[in-house]
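Troubleshooting: if your tokenizer reports a length mismatch, compare your output against this known-good record of 516 residues.
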Amino acid sequence: MSHLVLSRKYRPKTFDGVLGQKNALQILESFISNNSLPHALIFCGSRGVGKTSMARIFAKTINCDELLKSNKCSDYNTCSCKEIDENKSIDVIEIDAASNNGVDQIRDVIDSSNYSSIKCKYKVFIIDEVHMLSKAAFNALLKTLEEPNKNTVFILATTEVEKIPLTIISRCQTINFKNIKKEIISSYVSSIAKQEGIDIDDESVVMISEESNGSARDALGFLELLSTTLNKQIEVKEASKILGKTTKQVLSKITEGIIKSDVESVLKEYNNIYEGGYDSKKFVLSLMNYFRAAIYYKLGLEKSVDDIDLLVDTEIKKFQNYDLETLENLFDELIKLYDLSSKSDNVRFVVESHLIKLCMISNFVDFNLIEDIDRVQVASVNKESKKKRLAKTKKDFDSEYFLNNLKEAKNENYKLIKDAKISLNSSKIEIKLDNSIMFELLNNKEKKEEIEKLINETFDVAYKIEIIKPDNDINGFANGNEFKFKDKKDKLLESESVKNLFDTFDCRIQDVEVEN
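Known-good structure output:
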């Protein structure tokens, strides 16, 4: 006997065996219990969530009195149930619309539906991937769906219900199938592995559930692939290589490197991924999902959706230290990177370029907050941000108190100096920055006067400030060259962050220059 793949071996044969489709089950069982079977049904949902299996089970149930009463058939071998399971029943007919999508094939179905069932109580037609039918085939099916022969039921299964004509949908009862939750798939994979004698660690189970994207069939396919390749000894390190999936540990390192603007470590990790044979597009998708999960955990909404990556306590705690704006900006850029990586022939170059850009965005400046920086000449701004006055409750200078005041007042200067070393030297306040771009932004007369004014609003003593250039730029770009606006003017004007500024404030940039 030929090998039977796991997805067929463990295909559900009763309603109880279907995973994660409580809503669909409730609707179908109510049809049966109330004896109000519709003559046409549409099962729509993603691949591998149980549409065709449910159609077979439904066809079996309405044609077996024992299944109707007890959800179990005691006379399985002689009953029509076995023939339906094996796709050998002459009264339950399955059609693949992807390969039988013409009007002639549908006419054969219509002719067959005019005859009563031979052995079963109901004659059932299951048309899989029905959205692949031609327009003429759909038109030919219209009359039959509206007024079918007595005891004839049509079940139309599709992954793209939007492609089905409304005239067809209006003649059917539509049932939506959801993607199966990750925890349900994980439990299912562990159960099947135990039955098959497969030794698999928990990290690999989670990886399979995430990679399957809510599809039970895909999950069993991955399990069988790993089991066969690794001789039933599945560990996450080897499993990730075979599936081309980046591990959580690597994603965590890259994320930390991006947020710290450590270009060298980020590129090194990506080079290891690429040289290891991992799929770059899958890597970007994994990183995108990781940042998405971070945002949901940051907002405390991780339990509101079912398809986000699960983060451990140490990861959650780490992300709590990062600004939501930074995470959102990076996530937005990753979405664009994923789109570009799908279209480019040089995926490695595209990914490397954008990883460097992500490092720059995370540490330099949020361009949505620079509307009042006079260095960048922004014209035609329709809205001026409303500024709160800072609290004035201290006499002596306190840098931490000053920064907290800026943050609470949502003042844009907080973003620029929050990582600087601020100290009082006699009657002068020294602000030492950790990278060259911040020095360029702040070291001009107008900006210094603005910060001095903010300090004097907070404290009773009038202070002068000095902006100190960093000893070494911590961001360590190639050859130690500093990032200077005058050398990067064109890139600044073309950057996505500045384009976002245009969209947000309905403005344009006249010129970018460095003031002496």
